[in-house]
Amino acid sequence: MKGFVPLVLGIFGTFAFSWMGLILIPNLQIGHLDPQMDEEGTDVYPAPKSGMADRGRKIYAANGCIYCHSQQVRADYAASDIDRKWGERRSAPRDYIFARPVLLGKMRMGPDLSNIGKRAPVEEENPSPGPSASPAGSPAAAASPGKAASAASPAPSASSPAPAASPPPKPANSPAASASPVAAAASPAASPAPAPSAQPAGANQASPGKAAPTASPANPSASPAPAASPKPANSPAAATASPAASPAPAGSSPPAAGANADPATQAASVAAPPTGSPAGVEPKPGEPPPYSTAWHHRHLYSPRSFSIDSDMPAYRFLYERRLIAGEPSADALKLTGRDAPPVGWEIVPTYDAQCLVAYLMSLDQSHPLKEVKSPAAAGSPTVAPAASPAAAPPASPAASPPAGKGTK
Amino acid sequence: MDATEIPLKPPSVPTDVPTSDVEQIERALIDASTRVPVLMFYTSAIVWLLIGTLLAGFVSIKLHEPDMFSGVSFLTWGRLRPAHMNVMVYGWASMAGMGTAIWLMARLCRTVLRHPLLLVAGGGFWNFGVLLGVGGILAGDSTGYQWLEFPPYAAIVLFVAYSLIISWAVLMFRFRRGDQIYISQWYLLGAFLWFPWLYAAAQLMLFVVPVQGVMQAAVGWWFANNLLFLWLGAIGLGTAYYMIPKVIGRPVYSYHLAAIGFWTYALFSSWTGMQRLVDGPFPAWMITASIAATILTIIPVATVGLNHHMTMQGYFPLLRYSPTLRFTVFGAISYTVFSAVGVLISLRSVARYVNFTQASIAYSHLGLYAFFTMVMFGSMYYIVPRLVGREWRYASLIKLHFWASVYGVGLMTLMLLPGGFLQGANMENPSLAFSESTQTILPYLRGRSLAGLLMTAAHFIFAFHFGLMLLGLGRTSSVPTFLNPVEAEGSEGHL
Q1: What is the pLDDT of residues B223-237, one digit of tens each?
Q2: How far A53 CA lies from chain B's nearest CA (Å)?
Q3: Quick check: A309 and B438 CB within 8 A?
Q4: Cβ–Cβ of A70/B356 closer than 8 Å?
Q5: Coil, strand or helix: which one is B365?
Q6: Cβ(B307)–Cβ(B252) under 8 Å?
C-alpha cells in the first residue's frame, strides 16, 4: 500500500464509524431518558438512590460483586430469568438512568440481583406492602432497636435511606430479642415494635395482616415501622404468640432465641416458606428470613451458613469484631456454630457493610414501565405497590413519602 | 512486492561495500538504537506477567475455595479479579505489544530510533500508571467498569505515558525510508492511532462527562472489545505478518488478501462489543448490529488465515526448529479459533445459554492468551537475541515453555467452554435451583486451576530464560537456538 494519508484516513474513518454507530446514535436514542411519572407528576420512577444506598453502590463496585452478580433481567422469550423469579419484567434502559456506575454484570456465579430488595420478606408474604412499607420502616426501625438496646442504631436511622431501613425492622426485632439476653424482656419488647408497624403494613396488605389493624394503634411512636415485623406480628401475635413466647425466654441462647424468641421473626419465618422462597433459600429456624437486612449481613459475613453449596466469598473485612461494652448492639450479627464470636464479643457491620446492604435492599425494578410489557404477574405485584404508597402516607405519618422513592 | 524481505534501497554513501553487508550493518544499527527501550518494555512486561499470573492463581483457586483469605480486604476475590485482568491487559499485553511494535516499526521504517529516552520515560510512566491502578483496585478504588477498573488518577498517568510513547511512532514515520508501507505497519499504525482515541473516548464518556445509565455499559463493552481487537489484536496480527514470512524467508502470499483482511478487520471488529450485552436493557438493533459485525469478522479471519496458511505452505516442517515460528503460528491458528468461538457464542440462540457463564472467560483467554500472548512470546524469541547479542541458552527451556503454555491454555479452554455451556444449560432450566448451575461448573473450575499451574510454570521458565539473556548469559553463537538439532539444510539463515 502506498500513501500514508489514505491509510490514516481509513484508520480514522473506521473508528469514527464505529463510534458513531455504537455510541453516538444509541446515546441519542437512550442516553437522555427522564424518570417516568403519571399524569399528576407523582409516582415517579426511578428515583435516585440516596445516602447510604448510593455509597453502597460504590462499595458493591469496588469489591467486585459485579463479577458474579448481574443486574439485568432478560425478557421471558429470551431466557428464563423471569421464571427464576429474578424479576417480574425485563429490565429496560430507564431502570438505570440514575445508576453510576451502571452494574449490569457479565457473569452469574451468583443469582441476579436486579430485584433483590424487592424480594425481601415483606414482599414475600404479600406483594404490595414491600416498598412503601420499607421506606417508612427506616425511621421506625431505628426507633425500635433503639429502645430495645443499641447505641449503634443512630447510623442507620440517620441515613434513613429507606430501603436499608426496611429490613432492619424485622431483624431489629429479632436481634433485639436475641441480642439482649433479656430474653424474657425480649418478647414484650418485640411486641410493641411490631405493633406499631403493623398499622401501616396491615393497612396496605390485607392478607397477612388480618389481625393487624387492631394492634396498630398501640403505639404511634414506633409507628412508621417495619411493615415486615407487623404483619407477622399480628397474625402470629394473636394466634401463635403464646407458643412463640414460651420458647423465647427459654431460648436466651442466640440460636434458639433468634428465630423463635420474638413473634415477629417467627411469623416471618413461618410466613415465608409457604409463599415460596424465590431462590430456593428456605429460612430455617434460627435464620433470618431470606433477603432481609439481617439475612444479607449474615450472608455477607458467612455465606455458607445458609447454603453449604454457596461459592460466594465471605466479606468478613466489612464487619467488625468487638468486645460487647454494656449492652450488645442491636445490629450485631446473630451467628451460630463456628462463625459465632466468643462469649462477650459481638460482630457488627461496619458503615460500609450497612451501606452495601442498604444498596442491595434498594434494588427493585418491579415498578411497571410504559415501554415494557409486564408479563402475567403484573396485576398483583405491580399494581399493589402503586396503591400502597397512597395508602401509606396517611397510615404512617412518620414515613416520609420521599423515602419510598428508592424502593417503590 | 516482497516487502517481507525488508528491501533496502541501495545505500547511498558506501557504494564499495556489498549490499548484504550494508543491510547487516544497517539492521545492527537499528537494533542497537532500540535496544534500551525495547528491553525495558519487555522486562516490565514480563514482571507484570509474573504478577498477573500469581493474581490469576488466587482468582482461580478462590473461585472453588471461597473461604481463602476472606478476612483480608485486598485479597477478596472481587478485587483480585480486576487486578489480575488489568495487570494482564495493561501491564503485560500492552507493554509487550508496545515493545514489539517499537522494534518492528524501527525495522520496517528502516530508520534508527530517535530519542530512545523519550520511550524509556514513557515506559516508566506507564509502569507507574499500572502500579497506581492496580494498587487502587486492591485498595478498593475500582471504578466498577469492566476493563476500565483503574481509578481515573491512574488512567491519567497512563495517558501521559502513552502520549510520550506515541510521539516516537510519529517521529519514526516521519523519517521512514521508502514509500512502501508494509502490512505490519498498517496494523501497528492502526493500533497506535486507535488506542488513544479509544481510551480517551471511554474515559471521557465514563468519568468526565458521563453518559446516562446503560449507555455506560455500552461504552464499556465497546471499549473492551475494541481494546481487544483494535489495540492488542492489531499488534498481534501485525507481528504475525512480520514474523511468519521473515522466519521462513518467503514473502507474504498475497498483498491483496492482506489489504482486504486489514480493512474488513478495521471495519467489522470495531463494531463488535454489544453482543456481550445480548438481551440486556438496550435497543435490540445495537446488539444485532454487533452480532452481525461479529459474524462478518469471518471475512478478515478467513483472509488472514488463508494468507498465513499459503505463506507457510511447504514450510511447515520449520515449526520443528524455530521457536519464533512455532509460537507465532500457534498464535495465528488460535486467532482463527478465537474468532470462531466468538461468532458461536454471539449468536442469540447460543448466547442465551452462555452469556452469563464461564464460557466468556474461555473466550477472553483464547484471544488474550492463545492468540496475542503466544504471538508476543514468539516475537520475543526473535527480537531479544538481536538486542542482547546472545542466543537463547537452552532449547529445552523453550520447549518446556511452549508446551506448558499450549497445554495450559488448551486445558483451560477445554474446561471453561464446555463447562460454561453446562452451567448455562442448568441456569436456563428454572426447575433446577440456581446453585445447581454453579455446582456444575465447579469441577471445571478446579481443572482450570490445574491449567493455571501449567501456565504459571511456563511463565516462570520464560522469565528465568529471559533473565539469563538480560544478564548476558546467553550463548555466543552465530546460529540461532533451534528447538531440535537441525537435520534438514535450508532452514538455517532464516530462523
Answers
A1: 999 999 999 999 999
A2: 16
A3: yes
A4: yes
A5: helix
A6: yes
